[in-house]
Amino acid sequence: MENHQVHIEQGEEFAVAPLGAGEEPSSAAAVGGASCASAGPAPGAAESAPLARTPKAEARRLARLARKQEAEEAQQAQDEAFMRLALEEARLAAQAGEVPIGAVVVHQPRDRATGKPTAEAQVIARGHNQCEALKDASAHAEFSAMREAEQALDNWRLSDCTIYVTLEPCVMCAGLMQRSRVSRCVYGAADPKGGALGSLFAIHQDQRLNHRFQVTPGVLEEECQALLRRFFQTRR
């Protein structure tokens, strides 16, 4: 019966040339396993070294990145378009002598399983500050717009709605967003003295509350800030 020198490495068997009767394995063959072990990667190297991707896997990765970037750019363009509508409302407030803050509510139903839109985004409500005109401290732009949106949908839940407002909402308005179950708020200028969506408070992500929503700050921030700055400069 022929003897075979066998080298086992990582669960695979590699057969080498058969040995003749009484023949001793060569020193190279005898230490083959040790040589291979010493030539292998150092312990822990497999974890730190990135796995090489196949051409197909790399193509899929690049395609995912391209789709993600395309979606982000489309979302940014949409956010800016709706914020410009909110700026139009803010200018109406300034013309009436009110603090120039404007808001719009955009409704876009989504599939609950996939999260994908099932219809085009549509403005269902608009609002601007009317505190002075109505002698009402609650007549903030986004507060009024959300109440109008509830009437338009005949539902107090605004779970498929995004609120666009030129200034970061206060505690009152952020609280209504939380209570109305809005899905997202997009604002232009931050309010370091009264903002409740990141500046002073973070109502949108407070774990103690039963609803949390997304916030996108800084959309057309400079335009929103400039409108407020001009208004207050004329009052000094």
Automatic annotation (TrEMBL):
Binds 1 zinc ion per subunit. Residues 77-216 form the CMP/dCMP-type deaminase domain. One of its GO terms (biological process) is tRNA wobble adenosine to inosine editing. Keywords: Hydrolase, Metal-binding, tRNA processing, Zinc. SUPFAM superfamilies: Cytidine deaminase-like. InterPro entries: APOBEC/CMP_deaminase_Zn-bd (IPR016192), CMP_dCMP_dom (IPR002125), Cytidine_deaminase-like (IPR016193), MafB19-deam (IPR058535), tRNA_aden_deaminase (IPR028883). Residues 20-52 have a biased composition (Low complexity). The active site is at E142 (proton donor). Homodimer. This is tRNA-specific adenosine deaminase. The lineage of its organism: Bacteria, Bacillati, Actinomycetota, Coriobacteriia, Coriobacteriales. The gene is tadA.
